[in-house]
């Protein structure tokens, strides 16, 4: 990652710590009218002049922050499609924006994509119109978070995992378990971890607790952290209530978390490669690991709105989005892994070791975000996402 632009994404990940229950639950459920639409496009025609995209901050750059990172300008010149971007800091926000409409594409993580498909807010993609689709990592081409009932509902974009970031002055040896953020203990520097750790403030973080319990309390029988029966779910909530006593701040703003590690005494937290890379680039004593219990992660898919006003430009963008240079540049910028393996070699910004450093070989150890639903492998059913939302808001509020 290019560390010179350490101020980039300062606009990113902005939202309130505790969302109002009505808005959060509505977004979580993907509330909105079902939309009827025809089958996928049969051919790409003349561009409509623009394409409107909902994206994670930093995902679609035009060189405004750093001239070395620009995968928009050339596309606009080639296609005549002006790219307009609305950034969203959470999956729930993305679902809400897609429910409102007025957008063509969204870079949805797995905890949003299934809601968008179920709510008929996105449409089937004709991958024959995306010649470069065949270059996408085979592990992603038919991933369960966008390939449903034999239909493609998007084009893989980037992926990564949620690492355990830690301060090397507080830990003489690298921590090996998520225990350091879930249970009170004395660290290597002789101080308690209480008030010095953070946790992600999104409801999907319940899966992180479940993943830890899967390894440490096998008697619970957790097989999938996104498919929890009532007993397993209760155990996860109990662990998170215990963690609440340790957490100094729940994070969602990547730049605020960076400042917390630098100036507020935070020594351990779930995090992303983005924050770790910037902290290391700023010569901070920060490192990261994937603990023995594994990690949750995100795999993002560019999805087409059911009522897209600019489908031709949207298809042009989806084809453009998987070219190796864009994929490599974005991985270098964001600290993620390209959806196209060819991007891992020969990119001067990413470097030939960039993909491995960002987690390319960790794919099998990652429990990728998915929307929890009631119907699951357990015959008794599982706890659906709307309860994850309301219960996690309660935990954030100390209840």
Descriptive account of the structure:
It is a single chain. This protein is of the alpha/beta class. The protein is 32% helix and 16% strand. The protein contains 14 helices and 14 strands. The strands form 3 sheets. Strands 1, 2, 3, 6, 12, 13 and 14 form a 7-stranded mixed sheet that branches. It has a 5-stranded mixed sheet with strand order 9-8-10-7-11, with helices on one face. α2 links the parallel β1 and β2 (82-87). α7 crosses α8 (230-244) and α8 packs parallel to α14. The chain is globular, with a radius of gyration of 20 Å. Mean pLDDT is 90; it is low at 1-37.
Helix and strand element order:
HEHEHEHHEEEEHEHHEHEHEEHHEHEH
Largest sheet: 7 strands, mixed
Q: What's the gyration radius in Å?
A: 20 Å
Could you state the oligomeric state of the chains shown? single chain
Ends: how far apart? 40 Å
Portion in helices: 25-40%
Count of individual helical segments:
14
Average pLDDT: 90
- Give the percentage of residues in beta strands: 15-25%
Helix/strand class: alpha/beta
What's the total count of β strands?
14
Instruction: Show unreliable segments.
Output: 1-37
The gross shape turns out to be globular
């Amino acid at each position: 990652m290019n560390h010179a632009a350490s101020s980039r994404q300062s606009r990113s990940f902005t939202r309130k710590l505790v969302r109002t229950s009505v808005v959060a639950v509505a977004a979580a459920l993907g509330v909105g009218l079902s939309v009827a639409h025809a089958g996928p496009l049969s051919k790409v025609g003349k561009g409509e002049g623009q394409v409107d995209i909902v994206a994670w901050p930093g995902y679609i750059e035009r060189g405004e922050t750093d001239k070395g990172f620009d995968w928009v300008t050339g596309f606009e010149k080639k296609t005549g499609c002006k790219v307009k971007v609305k950034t969203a800091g959470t999956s729930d926000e993305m679902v809400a924006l897609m429910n409102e409409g007025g957008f063509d594409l969204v870079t949805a993580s797995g905890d949003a994509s299934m809601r968008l498909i179920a709510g008929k807010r996105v449409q089937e993609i004709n991958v024959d119109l995306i010649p470069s689709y065949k270059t996408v990592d085979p592990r992603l081409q038919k991933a369960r978070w966008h390939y449903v009932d034999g239909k493609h509902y998007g084009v893989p974009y980037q992926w990564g995992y949620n690492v355990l970031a830690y301060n090397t002055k507080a830990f003489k040896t690298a921590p090996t378990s998520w225990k350091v953020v879930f249970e009170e203990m004395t660290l290597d520097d002789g101080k308690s971890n209480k008030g010095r750790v953070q946790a992600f403030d999104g409801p999907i973080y319940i899966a992180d607790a479940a993943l830890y319990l899967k390894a440490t309390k096998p008697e619970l029988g957790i097989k999938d952290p996104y498919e929890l029966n009532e007993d397993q779910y209760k155990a996860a909530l109990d662990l998170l209530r215990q963690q609440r006593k340790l957490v100094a701040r729940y994070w969602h703003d990547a730049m605020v978390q960076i400042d917390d590690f630098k100036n507020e005494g935070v020594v351990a937290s779930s995090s992303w490669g983005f924050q770790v890379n910037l902290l290391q680039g700023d010569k901070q004593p920060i490192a990261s690991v994937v603990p023995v219990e594994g990690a949750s992660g995100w795999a993002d898919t560019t999805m087409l709105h059911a009522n897209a006003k600019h489908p031709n430009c949207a298809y042009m963008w989806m084809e453009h989005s998987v070219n190796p240079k864009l994929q490599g540049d974005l991985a270098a910028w964001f600290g993620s892994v390209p959806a196209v393996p060819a991007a891992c070699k020969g990119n001067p910004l990413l470097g030939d070791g960039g993909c491995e450093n960002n987690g390319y070989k960790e794919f099998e150890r990652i429990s990728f975000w998915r929307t929890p639903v009631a119907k699951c492998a357990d015959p008794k059913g599982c706890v659906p996402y709307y309860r994850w939302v309301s219960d996690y808001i309660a935990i954030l509020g100390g209840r």
